Amino acid sequence: MGRLVLCAVALLMLSALSLVSSRYQARQLFVAMEREQAQSREYEVEWRALQVERAALTSNARIDRVAGELQMVPATPERTLYLTESQIGYVADTVGDAQ
Q1: What's the pLDDT score for residue 97?
Q2: Could you tell me the pLDDT band of residue 79, with boundaries at 50, 70 and 90?
C-alpha cells in the first residue's frame, strides 16, 4: 500500500511539473505571437504610408511641376528626330568604334 501511495505521489508530481511546463511554454508562445502581430501591424501601417507616398510622388500634377522646375518641355513632332534602321546601325557602329 505504501508503494502505491508513493507511486501515486510521484505521478502526481510529474503531472504537476508537466502542467507548469506546458503552461509556461503556452505563455511564451502567446507572448511571441503578440509580438509578431504587433510587428505585422507596424508593417501594414508602413506599407500604407509608402503607398500614399508613392501616389503623391507619381501624381501628374507633381510630375508637371517638377518638369517645369527642371525647364523640361514636352516632346513635339518638330523636336522629334526619327531614325531609320540604317541610321540606327550606323550610330551603333560609330558608338562601338568610339569605345
Answers
A1: 58
A2: confident
Q: Residue 25: which H helix or E strand, with range?
A: helix 2-57
Q: How many CB atoms are closer than 10 A to CB 55?
A: 10
How far, CA to CA in Å, does 54 sit from each of 7, 32, 44, 64, 85? 69, 33, 15, 16, 38
With the C-alpha atoms ordered 84, 91, 78, 60, is the resulting torsion angle positive or negative? positive
Nearest-angstrom CA–CA distance, 69 and 72: 8
* Contact assessment for residue 30 and residue 37, using Cβ atoms and an 8 Å cutoff: no
- What single-letter DSSP state applies at residue 14? H
Q: What is the pLDDT of residues 81-90, one digit of tens each?
A: 888 887 777 6
Q: Is the dihedral of CA 83, 88, 92, 98 positive or negative?
A: negative
Residues 99 and 95: their CA atoms lie apart, in Å, by 7
Largest Cα separation within the chain, whole Å, is 110
Residue 1 exposure: Cα atoms within 13 Å on the Cβ side? 0
